[in-house]
Design brief:
The chain is α+β, with helices and mostly antiparallel strands. It has helices at residues 132-136, 156-167, 173-194, 203-215, 222-229, 233-244, 248-266, 272-278, 284-295, 299-306; strands spanning 6-9, 41-44, 55-63, 69-73, 80-86, 88-91, 94-97, 100-104, 110-114, 121-128, 141-142, 148-151. The chain has ten helices and twelve strands. Strand 11 and strand 12 (148-151) form a beta hairpin.
Length: 307
């Protein structure tokens, strides 16, 4: 144990306070009798010389307690790639589930929450590399929050197997560093091979997204978007499904929900009926119905848990 480069820490409490709590590898936290409760992660400290501009520096797996939330956090120093292998939650208000991969920029704060019944479990790796490396891959869709996301569900079992193979590695120095780098690229290659080939979104889709972001609070629909873009309604629907995997109506709903969550978290004094109107819902009941469909709870309940 003493010669192992692996260290364990439980981030449920200690990391939330900005502290580190190293423990012996594989040791369970005595505060929990149920393995589904603690966040369990293994941080790798690579004692090796630099092997170039690219290097996998940390590698681990976290299991969240039920209902855990973190707000305005930052990843340390370098991009961190996550693969959700179980449970549900949200990242900056966007749903997470098994098969979702997401990349967090160390320079941009983020907020995450885990489901109260089916908490998140994910593999992660922290990589020393320029953010442009990931943007060049034909995998990620980057949102306004600066986070990249893609669906790796077709190769979920391969990702879990390869990642846990990396957790079992022993040794130190250059051998360990090269081995983890090799496993990282094998995981990325598996994801690239399983991902549907896609080109850049259509200019019509990009223009529609800009219009939705600017007018989501208004009474907009696919007919209005098609009229603004001077194309047919059905053609616009086909382009959205091809490029984004969702319909224009679903994109409008997504934009409204993201705006609503931002207001709920940052403006606790604003009446819920006012938030509903500000994000484009003519009635509060419609807002509740749409919100519950996405987040599994009413806006009032979400606000109370966000305090």
């Amino acid at each position: 144990m003493q010669n192992s480069p692996w260290f364990s820490h439980y981030s449920t409490f200690e990391e939330d306070r900005g502290e580190s709590a190293p423990l012996l590898a594989q040791r369970k936290d005595p505060r929990f009798a149920d393995d589904s409760q603690p966040v369990y992660s293994r941080d790798l400290i690579l004692r090796t010389a630099s092997i170039g501009d690219f290097c996998v520096c940390d590698w681990g797996e976290d299991r969240w307690p039920k209902g855990r939330k973190v707000e305005n956090r930052r990843c340390d120093f370098m991009p961190t790639l996550h693969f959700v292998i179980g449970g549900r939650g949200t990242l900056n208000g966007t749903p997470l589930q098994a098969g979702t991969a997401f990349l967090i920029d160390p320079n941009i704060p983020y907020s995450m929450s885990g489901d109260t019944e089916d908490p998140l479990c994910y593999c992660w790796m922290r990589i020393r590399v320029e953010d442009s490396f990931f943007r060049k891959l034909n995998l990620f869709t980057f949102g306004e929050d600066g986070c990249g996301r893609f669906d790796f569900s077709p190769c979920l079992q391969d990702v879990v197997r390869l990642h846990r193979k990396g957790q079992r590695l022993t040794g130190d120095g250059l051998y360990l560093s090269l081995s983890l780098n090799s496993l990282f690229f094998e995981i990325i290659c598996r994801c690239l091979g399983a991902a549907p080939q896609r080109n850049e979104p259509s200019p019509y889709v990009l223009r529609a997204l800009d219009y939705i972001r600017a007018h989501y609070a208004e009474n907009i629909n696919v007919n209005l978007l098609a009229e603004e873009l001077h194309i047919s309604r059905n053609h616009l629907r086909r382009l959205f499904l091809r490029d984004l995997g969702r319909l224009p109506k679903e994109q409008i709903e997504k934009c409204r929900m993201e705006a609503a969550v931002t207001r709920l978290e940052r403006s606790p004094a604003i009446p819920l009926s006012q938030i509903a109107a500000e994000v484009g819902y003519p009635s509060y009941s419609q807002f509740i119905q749409a919100f519950r469909k996405v987040y599994g709870c009413a806006p009032k309940e979400y606000r109370e848990t966000a305090k």
